[in-house]
Fold this sequence. Notes:
7 helices
Amino acid sequence: xxxxxxxxxxxxxxxxxxxxxxxxxxxYGADFPVIERGTNGRDYRFDAQAVSDFLRAKQEEQAAxxxxxxxxxxxxxxxxxxxxxxxxxxxxxxxxxxxAWELRKRQRQEAEAAxxxxxxxxxxxxxxxxxxxxxxxxxxxxxQLGIEQHWPxxxxxxxxxxxxxxxxxxxxxxxxxxxxxxxxxxxAGSLPPSGK
Length: 196
């Protein structure tokens, strides 16, 4: 059973604003399912289910089209220098070498734009900042918890010392994983001396 609605009712039923509905009607033109076009004093009339089915089909078409486009782009992409990926063969002429460098530059730009390649310095800085913040906040939390729970000062210091050791081990593991030489103190946010 179909339900006939006007523009306002259709927009409410679809959960969109009237402007969005008007944009869809303009975008799809004569293909947009309309029972009766509105004129002065008369509302548009729509079959709500037909409109819903039409919009669902358009969404599926767009998703399929995007997937096909992404697949074609992936096939066109050539590998750029990543660990474990061999570089292209050496060019035989200056012109070929220049073309190879231009291609490599464009591949890097595309990878950066897609978020697949980021500059190392800002990434390392972000990691250092994150570790410093986590380290500082965790130490503050442990100290505050100890005070609120009335732990003896010696016990609070012992817990803080263990926390610092665990943080140092975590930072060292991440450094090894990333293959970076960022100093431990910098990455951990200047860990406090063990006697504090």
